[in-house]
Amino acid sequence: MSTVDTARGAAGAGPSLRRRSRPLEIIITALLVVAATVSVLTTIGIVMSLVGPTLGFFQEVSFVEFITGGKWTPTFSDKHYGVLPLVVSTLLSTAVAITIAVPLGLGSAIYLAEYASDSARRTLKPIMEILAGIPTVVLGFFALNALNPILRDIWPGGEPPEFQNLLVAGVVMGIMIVPTIASLSEDAMSAVPRSLREGAYALASSKRQVAMKVVVPAAISGIVASFVLGLSRALGETMIVTIAGGLRSDRVTFDLSEGAATMTAFIANIGQGDLPVGTLDYDSIFAVGALLFVFTFVLNAVSIRMVRKFREVYE
Amino acid sequence: MSVTAAPVQRATPLGEVLTQKKSRPADTVFRVALVACLGIVGLFLAWLIGYAIYKGWSRLDSRLWTNMPTGRISRIDQAGVQSAITGTLWIISVTAALCLPTGIAAAIYLEEYANRERWYNRLLELNIQNLAGVPSIIFGILGLGIIVRGFGWGFSIKSAALILALLVLPIVIISSREAIRAVPQSIRQASYALGATKWQTISRQVLPAAIPGMATGSILALSRAIGEAAPLIMLGAFSFVTFNPTGLDSAYTALPIHIYSLLVQPQAAFQELAAGAIVLLLVIVLVMNSAAVFLRNKFQKRW
Fold first, then answer.
1. Does the beta carbon of B227 lie under 8 angstroms from any beta carbon of chain A?
2. In angstroms, what separates the C-alpha of A208 from chain B's closest C-alpha?
3. Helix locations, B132-184, DSSP H
4. Minimal Cβ distance to B105: which of A32, A145, A267
5. Which domain holds residue B231?
6. Is B29 domain-assigned?
7. C-beta atoms of B41 and A131 within 8 A
8. Residue B249 domain-assigned?
9. A299, B133: Cβ pair inside 8 Å?
10. Which of A99, A108, A233 is nearest to B43 (CA)?
11. Considering the entire predicted model, what is its pTM?
12. What is d(CA A26, CA A284) in angstroms, rounded to the nearest whole number?
């Protein structure tokens, strides 16, 4: 090889086939790598910004009091730092949301994937896309001003719900995550091979039987992943619960008709003020933020895993 | 087993049985239930948009964009949201300038250069997927802890734009990757065969073919950034700002956070102005989303 190249080079005839060094290519590759590492730096930045103040927080508040205490009153003169009121109201509103969103999202996905004709899909899918694009501050406004008065009017017996309550916030969060669940579930169902459906039809199954007994089970890991992702979005949703869910956190409540601050609502509410750095109030935002980050991190990891599973099976 | 079973006696010929459509009530109910799911979602959407227009109708005139906000109830009649509109335009332009080049470059690296067998590339990919699911309020905490306090950038346009750029970066990367992946391998091979270098192939063949897909994803990402309130609330942009931003270091307000600060006021007049501003925000977001869908339908090539 090298003898041939040298011979050619010496003769000055024909192009050299040796790899030329191209500085531009190297510079561009380096720039692309730098751009790709921005996302890693973001994660490192998030973890770093959470860890410092959170450690500061736990120097003054015992971890046991934090996770078992039933009163969260950092802004009162009688300060308590038990995170349970925030966690319970977060889980309650998320439970309402997922109860609304799973049937609506899955039903829409089955219709779009299995029943709708191409033209019907083209007209129906934008509903989901528009809904996915509605800013959450608008959804919060709607929950507070449009939905809640109706809820209070039709409330069966007893005290009507408070002006801000977990039920109305949860319902609207449920509608918010319908597009997440519908689009990911539809993707999963579309990835199920046609042959499975045809096999079932050949055994005289109806469309409903094919959908429920063949397609949904075959796409189950993708469908569950969409639920988990929806759950994670509802846990982390801020504006709807801040506007319509209430801001009290001095007691644990399981009553959906009461207002109570979720973790995100607390962070947003306290974070608005110009808190002095290093105070316990300031650090408490980061401690609650760290807890929220851990929750959503675990859920995201689970959902990424499950999506990968269905991709492996059919693609 | 002998195979001489007697032929089955049927009351009706087999052909007729097979062509008869069996009525299955459960199937009909199921189908109706599925349509109802979509119907509920559609009705909710129509109600939401209709309600915002109805509530904000009295404020949908030129006062909205020519006048400045006020926190005083006595002057609410003359109040508008001009500073919030200009603030949103400023923030979104800077956000776009930051996140689009970075996101597209990262997508090119991951699709065209990265060797997926290497652990660090897999980590990069996992990191981006996970980042896409981190709640926006956590990005607000990042902004508060590192950008506002750490960098000392304060509550300025550049703080807000940087945080929103980081927030939507995973969306830009993921959608750009899909657009790049959709360009068939044969195009690249033809380009290499003509002696093009890797970057020449990417910049002259792959990127032009992927532009419609990348544009769709980028517009959707920016439309999400326009509607985000939670991270900006953490940064401190909040009270009634009565001037337009003048530069990157300027204080600001933006539509979603201004809407929030109107919503928390008890008087009905503030709620009406909030509804007017909501209609404006919805128009912006819906126009952007329709543009994205239009681009996707119009220019998407099927290879």
1. yes
2. 6
3. 136-142, 157-181
4. A32
5. 73-299
6. no
7. yes
8. yes
9. yes
10. A108
11. 0.88
12. 46
Angle at A181 between CA B88 and CA B164, to 5 degrees: 20
Minimal C-alpha gap between A3 and chain B (Å) = 24
What are the tokens at A315?
């693609």
Q: What is the pLDDT of residue A4?
A: 44
Dihedral angle at the C-alpha atoms of B4, B9, B12, B18, nearest 10 degrees? -40
Report yes or no on B242 lying in a domain.
yes
**Contact criterion met (CB below 8 Å) for B229 and A135:** yes
Residue A169 CA to residue A242 CA, distance in Å, equals 9
- What does the pLDDT look like over B26-39, one tens digit per residue? 889 999 999 999 99
Closest CA to B229 of B140, B132, B146, B98: B140
User: Which CA distances in Å does A33 have to B103, B121, B259?
Assistant: 11, 10, 39
- Of A271, A261, A270, the C-alpha closest to A240 is A261
Cβ(B251)–Cβ(B245) below 8 Å: yes
**């690249």: which residue's tokens?**
B188
B7: its two tokens:
């032929």
CA neighbours closer than 13 Å in the CB half-sphere of residue A168: 30
Can you list the residues of chain A whose pLDDT is less than 70? 1-16, 273-274, 310-315
Place of tokens 């919805």: B282
Query: In this predicted model, what pLDDT tens digit does every residue of B74-106 receive, in sequence order?
Result: 788 888 889 999 999 999 999 999 999 999 999
Specify the residue for token string 């290499």: B192
Q: How many domains does chain B have?
A: 1
Contact assessment for residue A244 and residue A144, using Cβ atoms and an 8 Å cutoff? yes
In-domain check, residue B153: yes
- Comparing C-alpha atoms, which of A91, A98, A100 is closest to residue A252? A91
**Contact status, residue B255 vs residue B278, Cβ threshold 8 Å:** no
Residue type, B51: Y
Name the token pair of A111. Answer: 């219709």
Residue A204 φ/ψ region, left for φ over 0, alpha for ψ in the -120 to 50 degree band, beta for the rest: left
Residues B141/A267, Cβ–Cβ less than 8 Å: yes
**Distances, alpha carbon A120 to alpha carbons A8, B38, B52, B218, B301, in Å:** 66, 12, 28, 26, 21
Q: What is the CATH number of the domain that holds B97?
A: 1.10.3720.10
From B71, B62, B63, B56, select the one nearest B242 (Cα to Cα). Answer: B71
Q: Give the best residue of A148, A272, A286 to mutate against chain B (max B CB count within 10 A).
A: A272
**Is B34–A108 a contact, with Cβ atoms under 8 angstroms apart?**
yes
Nearest-CA residue of chain A relative to B199? A25
Is A24's CB within 8 Å of B293's CB? no
B31 close contact with A: CB closer than 8 A: yes
Which of A280, A267, A231 lies closest to A100 in space, CA to CA? A231
Residue B150 banded pLDDT, cuts 50, 70, 90? confident
Q: What is the CA radius of gyration of chain A?
A: 27
Cα–Cα distance for residue pair B49/B167, rounded to 1 Å: 26
Question: What crossing angle do the helices spanning B119-131 and A23-60 adopt, rounded to 10°?
Answer: 60
Q: Which amino acid is at B67?
A: N
Nearest to A135 among B31, B236, B281 (CB): B281
